[in-house]
Amino acid sequence: MREAARLSEISTSMIRRMFEIVERARKEGREIVSLTIGEPDFSTPREVIERAVAAMNSGYTHYTSNFGLDELREVIAERYGVPTSDVMITAGGSEALMNASLALIERGSRVIIPTPNFLSYFTYAKLCEARIEEVRTHDTGFKPDPDRINEVMDRDVSVIFLNYPNNPTGVVAGKKELREIVEIASDYNAVVISDEIYDQIHYDAKPISLAGYENVVVVNGFSKSLSMTGWRIGFTIAGESLLDSMLKVHQVNGVCAPAFAQKAVADVIGDGLFDKIVSEMVSEFRRRRDYVYSELSEIYEVVKPEGAFYMFVNVNEDCMAFIEKLLQFGVAVTPGLPFGTHNKTYVRISYANSMENLKKAVKAFREYESQKPRSP
């Protein structure tokens, strides 16, 4: 059977493929430190699990409204300063991104993606049969330049994808630049999809939210901030007309997120525990970031991350060849190419791993570089 033509330019996720490579190597008895998957290595906090169990025992095991539980929508709305009616709960942030893409990216339109950027945005654009316009950020510290975006804008642009703190670079964009981009998009009747899934994980610069702008769809969730990747609790913040369009997709796609998980998150936030949980996790991520950056910046070109838990490292050689050779030293990283076409010499490192494993990884990087032949 032939697959649909809309999938002809789409391959399986390189991140997931690296995950499978690592698992296969481990089954062969090889010890591999994986710095590939963007998932906190912390278990879901006890406070969340206890409240989820209580919710299940109280009957939160059925469908909710497509918009989600009111108590969760209300606490999210309060945190972001928007009306409760602007909040819709989704089955993870990925579902929210898919809903927004299918609802707002017109077939044949142009989609602007500052690069490097999260690989799924390219997939969403291709699924919607749109044309991708990459705007490079390599010479601006990986921060978006509104002037460059303005240069490529026209009435054919349907969506601009933003993601700060950024995956894969960890960069946090400034308030002025982000608001200028929103205004530019508005001038051309385009929508900004602002993926803010890492907004709680930041170190040196606090990110802003674009929630509340008329032409902005904010996507977020609790996979990263509460280490709930397997629970699938995301949310969308947008005005009525945009939310109604996304609802048409959501009601046949995700339907609703698990009721007991929604209730657990609502209670954790309502009980004032959310910020404490996040703070403890971010403190450990900061420690890991500082260690890995201090070590790898002596070997490679790397911009210090201000948020998330990634580093985007220029290894000065073909990224695919690099990761294959590094695997022989017991470390797996993600190639840069899935994050944009100009990243042939870059790899993404996730430091959402234990300090013990990060030290092993740094040692492997140094051993690999020490064995490379030197130019005369």
Q: Brief overview, please?
A:
By secondary structure, the protein is of the alpha/beta class. The chain is built from twelve helices and 13 strands.
Radius of gyration: 21 Å
Beta content = 5-15%
Which term fits the overall shape?
globular
Biggest β-sheet: count, sense, barrel?
7 strands, mixed
CATH superfamily of the largest domain: Type I PLP-dependent aspartate aminotransferase-like (Major domain)
First-last Cα distance: 54 Å
Structural class: alpha/beta
- Mind telling me the CATH class of the largest domain? Alpha Beta
Model regions low in confidence, pLDDT < 50 over at least 5 residues: none
Can you describe what's shown?
It is a single chain. The chain has twelve helices and 13 strands. It has helices at residues 14-27, 46-57, 70-80, 93-104, 120-127, 146-152, 175-187, 240-253, 259-270, 274-296, 319-327, 355-371; strands spanning 33-34, 87-90, 110-115, 131-136, 157-163, 191-195, 216-221, 234-237, 301-302, 310-314, 331-332, 334-335, 346-350. Strand 5 (157-163), helix 7 (175-187) and strand 6 (191-195) form a beta-alpha-beta unit. The strands form three sheets. It has a seven-stranded mixed sheet, with helices on both faces. The mean pLDDT is 94. The protein has 376 residues and is α/β, with parallel strands linked by helices. It has two domains: 5-43 and 275-369, Aspartate Aminotransferase, domain 1; 46-270, 3-Layer(aba) Sandwich (Aspartate Aminotransferase, domain 2), CATH 3.40.640.10.
